[in-house]
């Protein structure tokens, strides 16, 4: 029996205009004298979930009263349009994409799912795997970053998808027919036609590729001090040099050239063990730790001209608009004391009476309007405290922790450089501010306490356990499990 | 104001005889009602029937012209009770709701109206929320039809069949004095198509006529001894009358050849899927010309014994395609064949899955299995399945979540913060958007027992120390929560905390107005505060929060409620308008103001990439779609950083949460002024000059000591 119908499944997320796209396709086909039927499953799926719109098209002369299906059947879908890369993956997973039949039109950009976003480190699914499957499974795969294309065209992703459908040539309709469907829809006609046109062009020219990630080149020195530091870096293993250069530049910016010198002193000691990977990872994590985020650093970063420009760019402010920027800062007594000279800060924190008196002053979050003169000056003064940073309580605390950590790395490296590398990486648990910092530090200390008795893999597993949840449940279980094994 | 407007579409309801109607399933149903001379309609919104209620509401002017009464009922029980108008008078009435949950709520009234019977046609349109996209327990309306003896129509899912069945449903109801249910599956509600219209018919008698000339027949009232007579009447009169009508009017259809060794009986609503499955194995075509006999049950209850026997006679086996469980039809077919002494084998759940939606692939495989066993000559060859190129692990799930800027999100952020301080409480959740709190990232909520039943669901918890928390939406509150929850808690001296989430609409079902809506609605009474109703039933500890985004106030009020010395229920009414509705209202207004050159202020949030360390605590306390992640631009860091995309509506939660939870200082709020006035511009110029000068000096100093 000859099959004279075209079946189309649209996989989209709520709010992406999948319904609009479906309506255009229906209008397009009906205007050309085809029988068109569309269905969808609205409801909770529309609230940020993913949903499927399904369309069947039949030429008018194919049947007097066609019996059309209301949902896609695996192995019977001619065109799949996916508004996002993982939705294309979902179409493949559900069997809608088949090698002999399906034209797959998918955007390669990502809208991250909640599990990917809320992971404590990097929870992103593999885009490469999905992209490869798209190429393997479809008869034809048209994939490009439709979100970026929509932004460039000043339009919405539904019109880009409609354009890509036209560009695919998978439907027997002319470009003018598509454009007529957009006009007949009557909503944002100009923007939609722009998007349509961009999508059509991109479908014909684009190679399916993932949106690229920029890799920052190692910095080049601009001063005599910088050149002296850069010279010292050349003594390190080749692989470790980019990280070391980034680190030296970062710490010069953070404090001064002497501080960057201290960084290289410390790194050189570790490089002495002759394991390039250990040196590379230590270069990275030592730089991150030495540039710990204190109030001075935050103030410094918030008031830079480059930051003001970046904000204007990110929130898309035009020249004739005025923008005011407010930060949400929450300096508690602890952070204030950490910025004070060590002796004074310690004295306050160790005195229950002083703590009781002073704490209420620092219990409230502050709305810091950086773009106002008053707050700008305040932050500038705070940033200027950089000169006294070496005297601060926090400096003393962090340097002691760093030295202890480096000591542990060296101790381990003497017998097992793989273990030492994992210990170096454990620094990654310490990040953030406030409660996040305290939680990270606690996890770090737990892992470090266990590390000397473990091998590299076990330390890596403990680190993963520490990042599995923010209650510390998985880590505690992993430690307990390890102890049980050790006893047995 | 509902989420979707049908103002334009309802104009098509005016089409007359011979004109072609094009549109969605639910619109077609409405057209069918008007063509059938319906006198009154009502119902309660809920997927997949919400849009039908919106269509009714938007069609109100036309309904009024025709003399048709429409109301948005307070609950499904209210809607079912409305059918009382058809008991004594020849009034045709239709009500609609989501099934099976709505049918549960309506069952008291349904039992009564089914027992006493009706004079005018009574049609209950149930949106069957089963299968993909469903948000409720998977049960069958069929059980209600059987136990109350109401008839169940399940038409083939094309507009012509659906509209015909609306008309026939009324006739069947009148012929058998029984209410009739018309079941529409999710996709059938939204399927598009066309049919030839007939003229609209004003009701022969209006509800006003009936009210003016009341008649009374105590035999129709469920009270002894009439109730015993009703049961006899059902069996001896109404059931045979229904079977006669279904057979006479040929409501069930036959497809394919008249004879064959095997055949298929299918629920009407599954016919299209079955035909596609047969097509794919080469046994049918696009016009439904099957190569084996098919008996299509557009009426799934009651069955017509003679038709069944005629179809099965001479066949060795018949496949029954019946979705859901228990397999009521399969059981009854077996009984009917026994009584008719036929040896035909009924095959159903032994080749088709007992649970789950009957999709095209499921039916294709089931039919193939059936044919291999009973008709191997026409059975499709077995194909080896290709292993999937991706596994479920590769594709992240997308559980439903709160919309961008949703005012309910900060309530759960606050609950998370309270949980950190006081430890977890038992949380009795409710039905509505707020139920998304049970999903990531919040993971709050232990049970949900039904719409408006949040407080009732916590009533067994008698705390000694730790109070249970019940959540209830404003929709659920007016649906029944006021009495089943608050009233009950007051009466039983409950000590639970009830958090009423008031977003101004029945938001989960599409933003319909309710009693406490702040909007003024020309045809309904709104602006009745929840707090007043709560105090009215005797609750004394009541707090209202008028800005849910104030996480600190939310957190502190919750803490107070959980620790207050007073006994008795503690009620917190947390109000902020549904952001979807608010944006629909404000966005066009702002765009207009900007166009007109007026000063417009807009907030949005952002994250500084150089201070964000990629821990994502903020996301775990929010889950906002606009708060996402992007690759870390820092060459030394690997974890993606938080990022606010341009869909941010500036609700303020990011800032409030970073203060209340002491998060990192990376969030900033950008307050953007479009069409700034003179004062804005002067301020900007002065600040810009001074700050710019300082920044240039700082840059120079930094360059001097740079790397």
Automatic annotation (TrEMBL), chain A:
It comes from Allosphingosinicella indica. It holds the Pfam family DUF6537. Residues 245-449 form the DUF6537 domain. Residues 14-200 form the Pyruvate/ketoisovalerate oxidoreductase catalytic domain. Coiled coil: none annotated. The lineage of its organism: Bacteria, Pseudomonadati, Pseudomonadota, Alphaproteobacteria, Sphingomonadales. The keyword Oxidoreductase applies. The keyword Oxidoreductase applies. It comes from the Bacteria. This is Indolepyruvate ferredoxin oxidoreductase beta subunit. GO terms for molecular function: oxidoreductase activity, acting on the aldehyde or oxo group of donors. Keywords: Oxidoreductase, Pyruvate. InterPro entries: DUF6537 (IPR046667), IorB_Oxidoreductase (IPR052198), Pyrv/ketoisovalerate_OxRed_cat (IPR019752), Pyrv_flavodox_OxRed_cen (IPR002869).
From TrEMBL, chain B:
It comes from the Bacteria. Pfam families: TPP_enzyme_C. SUPFAM superfamilies: Thiamin diphosphate-binding fold (THDP-binding) (SSF52518). CDD domains: TPP_IOR_alpha, TPP_PYR_PFOR_IOR-alpha_like. InterPro entries: 4Fe4S_Fe-S-bd, HACL1-like, IorA, Pyrv_Fd/Flavodoxin_OxRdtase_N, THDP-binding, TPP_enzyme_TPP-bd. Keywords: Metal-binding, Oxidoreductase, Pyruvate. GO terms for biological process: small molecule metabolic process. Residues 603-634 form the 4Fe-4S ferredoxin-type domain. GO terms for molecular function: indolepyruvate ferredoxin oxidoreductase activity; metal ion binding; thiamine pyrophosphate binding. PANTHER family: 2-HYDROXYACYL-COA LYASE, INDOLEPYRUVATE FERREDOXIN OXIDOREDUCTASE ALPHA SUBUNIT. This is Indolepyruvate ferredoxin oxidoreductase alpha subunit. It comes from Allosphingosinicella indica.
